[in-house]
Design a protein that fits this description.
Elements (H helix, E strand, L loop, with lengths): L11 H20 L13 H14 L6 H12 L2 H23 L1 H12 L5 H16 L2 H19 L3 H18 L4 H10 L3 H29 L12 H15 L4 H19 L4 H13 L2 H20 L1 H12 L3 H19 L2 H19 L3 H16 L6 H10 L3 H4 L4 H15 L12
């Protein structure tokens, strides 16, 4: 294997991206807002990464342009990257079809009809957990559930920030665990592990946090009762595909097969229920896959930048820094968490943060004997923790916009993300020691 010398200058492309994306996001969000636009979406993440890639190409003059293109091609052509891109396409088609068919709203309304009115807040948390696990997207879940939560708050007198915080927390729970979530796909494929194995590692951290959150919300609701809930209309058949997809995913069925079954079921049930026609179904699938294009392009750009940075010695520089401060497996795991958290704070996108951090995390896991499934779990969990609490992330900004409150006002009631962080730290501290750990280079 080729020895690469540590070269901190090779990390310049990431610095350029951070200055462009994070800097412009803060400027347009808090200093000079653009009417009708979220600050972190004024400058496209694709454009920012495109400019960063140009910087990566300009570096290392010892390699020709053609040699650098070949390095990028090898990075993009990695088996895990290719599979990840295919899964993104199928997940997009499934989400688009399910939304148009009315599956998400029917599932949410079904759960609301079952839940007692005096337990609306913990009920909304549970609904968001289930919907997000089934849909595979926290943003999609928030878009569907928050208007319902806002209606409940207005009609019952429950605290709006508490209700919205419960929904956001549940959405992040499902995003972290769903096998069709782009974060799960990115975390597992980049580490070369099965989704069910990552799920088993994740559930040990996420479930205790969710249970404690549920207890807190129940206690809060009992101390602050509201009025009874109204009746919500739903079609149980339109909710069925979501639950079936969830069950099939949990038993470990191949993700392509799970998504394929879900797409076929929504085609059939949506057509029978009259919510889908042949034309609207294919149009919905096109819209869903189209919604994944930016994520796919970013994946290609990041794979290229990562390959060049690794070739130039950037990854080795990061590893050298972590070696100086991490002297054990636990230290390596905290290093992965820190790296992922910083990337998420910088990009305000948990999937992008995982894609950037994943190659370095893989090297760290090899160095310190961290199991690949643990690394995938750390990547996904940390990205969801930070994405769930940053006030300029899409999740909180959309939730705030739909509910008519500020994103800052929701943060104190984000019990789940904060508890998840605590459970993650505890899981690392009490984790078992590795049987074999590679010696530091």
């Amino acid at each position: 294997m080729k020895n690469v010398k540590a070269n901190p200058k090779a990390l310049l492309p990431i610095l350029v991206f951070l200055v462009l994306y994070l800097g412009s996001g803060i400027y347009f969000e808090y200093i000079r807002p653009v009417e009708g636009r979220m600050g972190f979406y004024v400058i496209s993440v694709v454009v920012a990464f495109g400019l960063a890639l140009i910087v990566a190409f300009v570096q290392n003059r010892s390699l020709s342009f053609d040699e650098k293109v070949h390095i990028c091609a090898k990075g993009i052509g990695d088996d895990n990257i290719v599979i990840m891109l295919f899964i993104f396409l199928m997940a997009g088609a499934f989400s688009g079809l399910a939304k148009t068919a009315g599956g998400a709203s029917s599932t949410a309304n079904l759960m609301l009809d079952i839940i007692p009115g005096n337990l609306a807040i913990p009920g909304m948390f549970l609904i968001a957990c289930l919907i997000s696990m089934a849909m595979g997207t926290s943003v999609g879940t928030i878009t569907v559930i928050v208007p319902i939560a806002a209606e409940i708050a207005n009609s019952t007198g429950f605290s709006m920030p508490v209700l919205i915080g419960a929904v956001v927390g549940g959405a992040m729970f499902g995003d972290n665990l769903s096998v069709i979530s782009d974060t799960t796909i990115a975390a597992t494929r980049t580490q070369g592990v099965e989704m069910k194995d990552k799920f088993k590692a994740n559930i040990k951290i996420a479930l205790p946090a969710a249970v404690i959150t549920l207890i807190i919300l129940v206690i809060y609701t009992l101390q602050n009762p509201g009025a009874e809930l109204a009746h919500y209309e739903f079609n149980i058949w339109l909710a069925l595909p979501y639950f079936l997809v969830l069950i099939l995913a949990l038993i470990g069925l191949n993700v392509f097969l799970v998504l394929g079954i879900g797409i076929v079921l929504f085609f059939l049930i949506g057509g029978t229920a009259g919510t889908l026609t042949f034309s609207t179904a294919f149009s919905a699938m096109g819209d869903g896959t189209g919604g994944m294009f930016e994520t796919m392009i970013v994946t290609v750009l990041v794979a290229s930048i990562s390959a060049l940075m690794k070739e130039h010695g950037g990854f080795e520089a990061l590893l050298s820094f972590i070696r100086k401060h991490a002297k054990s497996k636990k230290g390596g795991m905290f290093g992965i968490c820190l790296l992922t958290g910083i990337m998420d704070i910088a990009t305000a996108n948990n999937t992008v943060a995982i894609v950037i951090a994943a190659p370095i995390a893989k090297d760290i896991s090899d160095e310190y004997g961290v199991e690949p499934r643990q690394t995938a779990s750390l990547l996904d969990t940390c990205s969801c923790i930070f994405q769930g609490i940053i006030p300029y992330g899409a999740q909180l900004l959309i939730a705030a916009t739909l509910s008519g409150i500020s994103s800052i006002s929701i943060i104190p009631f984000l019990f789940y993300p904060f508890l998840l962080a605590i459970c993650l730290v505890i899981s690392i501290l009490i984790g078992k020691k590795p049987k074999h750990v590679k010696a530091s280079a």
